[in-house]
Every structure is written in structure tokens, then in C-alpha cells.
Amino acid sequence: MKILVCISKAPDTTSKIAFTQNNTTFDENGVQFIVNPYDEWYALVRGLELKEANGGNVTVLSVGGADYEQIIRKALAIGADDAVRIDAPESDALTVAKHIANYAKDKGFDLILCGKETINYNGSVVPGMIAELLNLPFVAMASKLDVAGTTVTCEREIATGVEVLETSIPVVVSAAKGMAEQRIPNMRGIMAARTKALEVVTPGAETATTAVNNYELPAAKAACKFIDPENAGELITLLNQEAKVI
Amino acid sequence: MKIIVLAEHSNGKFTKSSLEAVSYAAAWAKGNGGTCTAVTYGNIDASILGTYGANDVLKQDNLENAEAEQLAHLMFGVQQQTGATGLVVSHDNTGKAIAPRLAVKLNAALVPGATALPNGKDVKKNVFSGKAIAHVTMNTDVQIISVLPNSFGMTTDGSACGVNGVSIDIAPARVKLKEVRVEASEGIPLPEADLVVSAGRGMKGPENWGPVEELAKLLGAATACSRPVSDIGWRPHHEHVGQTGLAIRPNLYIAIGISGAIQHLAGVNGSKVIVVINKDPEAPFFKAADYGIVGDAFEVLPKLIDAVKAYNATK
């Protein structure tokens, strides 16, 4: 089975979020970058599990500059066989999806896996765009993924339970919590990652359809109002009369 | 500006997030002197979409249990017929599969998870898991917006509108729904809940959840939990809210025995009012709270339950 896992770079989940240049640019000062958790913990690890069970190859792909190679090596250390970096600056989702689809269109991937969203842009749209560009079926937000022959079975959590969905390869799937468990790379994986193939591809030009104009931080919360635990019932009165939420 | 909006339904009812999307689309149209057409399918009385602001409805009859790709075809077909330049869907599971297909078909700007109406070509969306807001500029004539659930209220001051048939050529679904396993038959679905009572490791064990569930039931709230509690199996996974679980935006979020790690906050920081109950006065969650009680959950909960019972008796 030929598997492509798309990974993105994201600030560590504990990063302080701040902006520079008149609130137009994310302040990377002191920020540690990681593989976007949904891409790494769920999409990549499930891809590796399917390869281990069925044979095949797992390629990781990222769209970004040379600074992305650190997270690509991490994915190789976790177990991906080889990697591709499409050398293009960060741009909007449609541009990223076009770069990925242009690369993948004649490679014969059975499975294209992505995380359900990045934790920095929270868009959830690149995987669906790849599916449309390649004319493939798409399952969004899958919490479980199994492949038997050409049949693909996914589960997706909904408000009242779980949906079981069936489709066939080739397919694009976006991964949510539950699909796999995080793997910590071991020393052998880290050593092996240094020599695995990392192909750098120069893409054609694409025009972005959206642009982030500027950022703002949410309004600061007023100080917390403390209620005496002996008098805890007063909370209900405050929620009713002051906050007016019940 | 002509705007079309998708109205999804399940079990004979339009979903709450779809009705929010219709309200959003109607307000967007109204703001620039345009019209709002709701698009739906299958066997349902769609005239009530006028109540939420739609000027009219286009309905495809021969489509039941529609899959996202089919709904993308439906919206694309209607866009081609009507020449609409604004397309709106909800940023729910289905919308997350529809909107990107539309963006490709139309080579159009897409803002996923908008939290406010456009200001010209500028739309606000949450980024960095709710820790910041981005102003996104849409640089194409045709514009697509998916609306973040629970961020734009429903408006219900319209009246029933006309429903016309539409007939778009739609291929059979490539992804088939085989089964729905109902796991949370009781109570209120968490993503749609206005009130949420959530608890964490401070409850010390799954056998102690009785008062949490009782408080939720008395308030008419859904129950939720923190990641460690779902990871060790005290509570079902679909209750987990946080960075890697569900992100929710209720009117009221009551957190009991949850310290408030940054990853948990990322899933609840869109809540309008946050109440934190924790015996540790240094718990970081208090910094994000509107109301706080520093105390033992096992002593505070019975007092709250009594107070809600008394309050309910006065209603």
C-alpha cells in the first residue's frame, strides 16, 4: 500500500501567542515548533500501522521552506520511509492543497492522510481540497481507519455516537483523536532519519485566494469573581441574575 | 449580492448549526442589499427556513441521507444556476468536507470557521486554537464562508418563505454511511449544548460522577470531561473537550476538579461564562474563569445541587 501523509509545522501547544510588525506576523521569538499534533499522532502513526500490517511505503510531505526540515526529520524518525518538501512559502490553504495535489497526481497513492486541522490556523480544509483536486472520495474527521483489500472503513464521532463509513482506495482521510496513539521516536529511528531520502520539489506558481491581513488577541477577561465555598449556592443566583446564562 | 446557504437536516429537523448558518447568510445578504436563498434536499418542510431569514428555498427532492460530496455538487449546481457570489455552510463535520470542494470547483476564497459577519472582504476567524483572531481578506469575486457553530446566534424574526424545486445532476455517493452507533442516548449532545458541566481528575474516580451528572441534569446541561479522565477510561471519549478533543463554545461552562492546562483551555475558551471549582487556589484555570469557588468538589457540589433545585422550584 502506498501511503502519503501530509504534515504541517505548528508552534508547540504551550507557546505564548504574540504578534509583531503591527500585528501582521506571528512572533516566533522563543517559540518551539513541532509537527502539527493531528498530523503526527494520528495520521502518521496510523499510516505506519497500516504499512506494518499490509506492507508498502509511507511518504511524508510538507509544503514549506528549509525550516520545515526539522519537523520532516522528526516524522522520518518516527518511522516514515521517505519525505518530500515542496519548497514554497506558507500561503493559503488552496495554494497548499494545489501544491500537494500537483505532486501526488501521478504517484499512485492508495491513501492520503492528513490531520483534521492545524493547531495554528484551525482551517480543516486542505484535505478536502486535495480530494477535490484529485477527484477522490474524502472522509473528514475520522477517529478510526481500517483498510481490507480495497475497502476502507472509517468511524467518525458525532454528537450522539459514532458513524461507520465505507469507501474504497484511493481515498483522502483526515484524522481525529482516536485513530492511533502517539509514538515517541527511539534512538535508532533518530539515527536512521538522518540518511533517509528527503526530496525537495520546486513547485509551479499558484495565486492565493485569501490572505491574513492582521491578527488580534481576544479581549482580556475581567478578574475572576470568587464565591465563598460555604455559600456555594450563591453561584446559581449570580449565574441567573448577573451573568444571565441560566 | 446573491447568497446561497446550505441547510442540513437529520431526523426530520434542520440542525442547529445549519439554522445559525442560514441566519448568518441572511444577515450578510441584508447588509449589502442582496438576497439569501437556502438550499436543501429530501423530505422536509423547508418553508420554516424563512423564519431564519431566507428569502426563498431551493430544494432537491430525490436526495436522502446525502453525503458531503453530493451536497457539494448540489451547492455548486445551484451556484451555477443562480450566479450566487456568496456561499455559506456550517463549519461542522459535513461543512468541513463540503466547503473545500466548493473552493476548488469555484477557485474561490474560503474562510473556514468565521465568527462574525464580513466587513467588506474582511472576515474574522479564530486561530491558534482560540488564542488569537485573524482578519482574513477574501480576494476573489465568489466568496465562501463556513460559520463556526455557536458563534453567531440564530435570528427568528422572519416568516415562512416559498420553496421551489431544483434538479441538479448528482452522482451516487462514493462514501457510504453503513451504520450509526448511538452511544450517548441520554442527555444533550455536547457540541450543541448551551450549558456544560465538566469534571476532571479532581473527582478521584469514575464512581464519583453521580453529583456531576445530577447537577448537569438539573441545569439541563451536557456533561464533558478533561483529557486525562477520558484517556484512563473514567469517561467516554466523546466527552473529552480540549485541544485534541472537542472544541465547544457553550454559554456556560462549569469545570469541576480540572486544573486548566493550556490544552484544555484551547477547547473551551470560546465559552461565554466559565465557572471553575477547584480546591487548589493556584489552579491556572481560575485565570480564565468568570466565577470561581476554591473548595472541595465533594462539599461544593451538594450545595450547588440544592441551590439549583431551589432555583428550579421558583421557575
What topology emerges from the helices and strands here?
The complex is a heterodimer of chains A (246) and B (315).
Chain A: E1 2-6, E2 9-11, E3 19-20, E4 25-26, E5 33-35, H1 37-54, E6 57-63, H2 69-78, E7 82-86, H3 93-104, E8 111-115, H4 126-133, E9 138-142, E10 144-148, E11 151-158, E12 161-168, E13 171-175, H5 187-193, E14 198-201, E15 210-216, E16 225-226, H6 234-241
Parallel strand pairs in A: 1-6, 1-8, 6-7, 7-14, 8-13, 9-13
Antiparallel strand pairs in A: 2-5, 3-4, 10-11, 11-12
Helix pairs in contact in A: 2-5, 3-4
Chain B: E1 2-6, E2 9-10, E3 13-14, H1 16-31, E4 35-41, E5 56-60, H2 68-82, E6 86-90, H3 95-106, E7 109-114, E8 122-127, E9 132-138, E10 143-147, E11 162-166, E12 176-182, E13 195-199, H4 210-219, E14 222-225, H5 227-231, E15 252-256, H6 262-268, E16 273-278, E17 291-294, H7 297-314
Parallel strand pairs in B: 1-4, 1-6, 4-5, 5-11, 6-10, 7-10, 13-14, 13-15, 15-16, 16-17
Antiparallel strand pairs in B: 2-3, 8-9
